[in-house]
Design brief:
Layout (H helix, E strand, L loop, with lengths): L2 H14 L8 E7 L6 E8 L8 E6 L5 E4 L2 E6 L2 E9 L6 E8 L2 E2 L3 E4 L8 E6 L10 H8 L6 E4 L10 H14 L3 H4 L2 E3 L9 H6 L9 E5 L2 E5 L7 H12 L1 H4 L3 E5 L8 E2 L8 H13 L4 E4 L5 E6 L2 E6 L9 E2 L7 E5 L3 E8 L2 E8 L4 E8 L6 E2 L3 E2 L2
Length: 387
Amino acid sequence: MSARVLLLLSLLAPALAPPAHAQNLTKLPMLQSFRPNELRVLWETDANPVGSVHALDYGLATPSSSVVALETIQLAADRFVHRAVATGLAPDTAYVYRVRSGPTQSATWPVRTAPLAGESYRMAFIADNQNGAGTSFQSVLQAIAPFAPDAIGHAGDTVQNGNVMAEWQTQYFDPFAAAGNLGQRTPVLVARGNHDANFPPSLAYHWLPNNNYWYAETIGNVRFVFMASHVQTPAQDAFLAAELASPAAQDAEFRVVVFHHPPYTNLWDSPGYNGEPHQRNVWVPLLEQYGVDLVINGHAHCYSRGAQNGVTYTIVGGAGGALDTVVIPPGWPFIAIAQPIHHFAILDVAPGQLAWRAFDLAGNQFDSFQLSSAPGVPVYPGGGKEW
């Protein structure tokens, strides 16, 4: 082949080669668990060229260690969700991390692993930000940020329509990033709601342990149980009974159960609804039998708190959705406070004590209570209890 032909081919080669597609981060990484020994992270890119490496980098002072993503979920032609887990970490320890997809990498953010039993920590609790019809979700997160929670619990309805991918960007990921990258620095533990539902984006963007619906975590001295109340199935009922009867729950100083649909509410947007019969008839007896201390719900767009048969019930559905203002007669008499107000709650966990405070978005505290630990209900074979 002549030198002239070789020169011509070399000049044409860049034009003939397929264009390289930069992998842009379309969703910044969010932390999906709060455990003493792991970082569970997901992020999204707009491309996934053959041979791409997606990785989570982490370390104490610099992100010097790496793990390759466990899986990539394609939701659309330009939506690829990557999931990675770093294990073997030290509890209650400050780390830094970032994510990489091909040549693209994120900024580096700090995070702290969960403590072991006997150590204190702080969680914020919210629900029902949805479409921000009442107030912007970003404003709620900005009010939470100065409290520097170690983790955030979300009792469901993180978007208005779980099957609309654009809403996951504007109603969930973007507000968490805009509020000082709160979502990049703070693990978010979710109990899905009926608006999230079971659509592919919901199952991809909320990467939950166990079966990706209901799960349990021991954080410090508290056993947290997260349920999927929009799903009614005997399998979930059996899970709740077995979990509350388990040594992990009974040996904990406190048992806290988080799910979306409340068994009781005195506020709604129209007459007739006062809570969920299934939760009242099936779950509440289990909560009482096995000594659950605190229940955290959403669904009703209000704040609510009351105690019955040893269980304290709260609703934290004030993270942005239009408020529920209709009083439902005759009302549940044990509910001590029910306010249609945008808000968030702060739960401070210390040895032998849970301290709960509720704040409006101006930072005014309008409710508080404390719970002290008590021995768990002894559980014996057959699921019964003995006095």
